[in-house]
Amino acid sequence: MKLRLIVLAMVVLLAYPVWLGYQVWSQSHRDENHTADAIVVLGAAQYDGDPSPIFEARLKQTVYLYDEGFSDSIIVTGGKQPGDRFTEAGTGEAYLVAQGVPADAITQEDNGRTTLQSLREVRRMADDLGLQSVLLVSDPMHSERLKRIAIDLGFEHAYTSPASYITLNRSRLTKAKELVREVMSIIYYELS
User: Fold this and answer.
1) Which of 70-74, 106-110, 120-124, 173-177 has the least mean pLDDT?
2) pLDDT, tens digit (0-9, with 9 covering 90-100), for 90-135
3) Which of 86, 134, 137, 140 could form a disulfide with 49 if both were Cys (CB 3.0 to 4.6 A apart)?
4) DSSP structure class, residue 164
5) Residues 176, 119: Cα–Cα separation, whole Å
6) Is this model's pTM higher than 0.70 or not?
7) What is the radius of gyration, based on Cα positions, of the chain?
8) How far apart are the C-alpha atoms of 40 and 32, rounded to whole Å?
9) DSSP three-state, residue 7
């Protein structure tokens, strides 16, 4: 009897991450282009005011969504690392304005240094901005975690529209590492 319980516990412990991996992979292949109160683009590395290739791919997706009329409001997120002169949010706004997005359509959340911190700050701003729905832009494998956090924070509707893997130019090995990292990040988030 004891052995059966141990085996059952091991099966459950192994099955949950596999199921979660499927959820992450499945969501990464969905582009839920949907109208929302705001497009929220998650920050990524910036190099002295220039977006990294990953951040630029997210920003290009944001410009597309804005130009297609999915929302007339954009929130760019991300603070800065020690020693940085620019925030990710500030770099994102400068890029978007250079692409023709009006500055008055953009709001910065420049305190968050993690996904959770940034989304908590966006949630804090939501009441003042009248936001009940968000269209989240990040990397494909990041989509499931973003959506879970946004819903947990109380957004009525959370949709994802990830940057394209073609634009991101990721190898299969990199995608596999991202999948494992996201599964572990969701488990950590759920246990916190």
Assistant:
1) 173-177
2) 999 999 999 999 999 999 999 999 999 999 999 999 989 999 999 9
3) 86
4) P
5) 25
6) yes
7) 18
8) 13
9) helix
